[in-house]
Design goal:
Layout (H helix, E strand, L loop, with lengths): L19 H5 L9 H12 L5 E7 L5 E8 L7 H15 L12 E7 L8 H16 L3 E9 L2 E4 L5 E2 L39 H6 L38 H8 L1
Parallel strand pairs: 3-4
Antiparallel strand pairs: 1-2, 1-3, 4-5, 5-6
Helix pairs in contact: 3-4
């Protein structure tokens, strides 16, 4: 890779890989239910060709964490893929290097074009998965491919027709228009004063439970007249500008 652009294979490519016979004899932890596992990962990530899905399984073979990323399509040296896998593992789940023996398993699903059989690039990804799993304290699990023919577990011959590398285009797209319509809330009748509240006039007169000169409930606000805002002063009565007595009273 030069300046962030994949220029294809380099002279050192092809040094770190593993063939199919060595992969089968390495004691890879096999999946108990690969069909359900592939369906779950596909539903989570909807991988397209060129996408690699990494999953970490707990001791009960349930998905504890997963991530999808795009690798270098032309690289056949597992060192490049190992770094990418290790970076994703460090991002999604803590390592288990302090444990005496690995209890969790790393599994890789690679969505690509072509046939389901083993290729040289698959060998580089297998080497990368095995090395990254050891560096993160995990067991090396299965390596699966997702091609136009369906999914295939390399090494044990298990396969299925669905999902396949084009299934991502058939998945339903969830948009805002598909959300259920918002149900209008029924207007509740205004209840004023609230139950148990004591009118201010009654509290000032001493007839309420709050005592003389006290407000019945702290923070009680009397209802404003329509069209008025909080902070406006409400006159005690209408003042006529033509009434001289009213003007003298207001001027005092």
């Amino acid at each position: 890779m030069i300046n962030g652009i994949d220029r294809g294979q380099t002279p050192c490519d092809g040094a770190r890989t593993i063939d199919l016979a060595s992969w089968v004899g390495s004691g890879v932890a096999q999946l108990g239910a690969p069909r359900e596992f592939v369906a779950e990962l596909h539903q989570r990530h909807l991988p397209q060709p060129g996408t690699t899905v990494l999953a970490v399984l707990d001791p009960q073979q349930r998905v504890a964490a997963s991530a999808s990323f795009a690798g270098r399509p032309h690289a056949t040296d597992g060192w490049h893929h190992r770094n990418a896998i290790l970076g994703e593992l460090r991002r999604i789940i803590p390592h288990d290097l302090r444990l005496p023996a690995p209890v969790r398993t790393a599994v890789l699903l690679r969505c690509r074009e072509g046939g389901p059989d083993w290729t040289e690039q698959d060998g580089a990804w297998m080497w990368a998965l095995r090395d990254a799993s050891a560096l993160h304290g995990l067991r090396c699990g299965s390596y699966l491919t997702l091609t136009p023919a369906g999914w295939h577990t390399i090494g044990d011959g298990l396969s299925g027709r669905t999902p396949h590398s084009g299934s991502w285009a058939q998945a339903p797209v969830h948009t805002v228009a598909e959300l259920p319509p918002r149900v209008a809330r029924e207007a509740e009748p205004d209840q004023w004063p609230p139950p148990g509240a004591v009118p201010v006039a009654a509290a000032q007169a001493g007839t309420g439970p709050a005592g003389p000169g006290q407000i019945a409930r702290l923070g009680q606000v009397s209802r404003l007249a329509p069209g008025r805002q909080l902070g406006q002063l409400t006159p005690a009565g209408p003042l006529s500008p033509l009434n001289p007595a009213a003007r003298r009273t207001a001027a005092r």
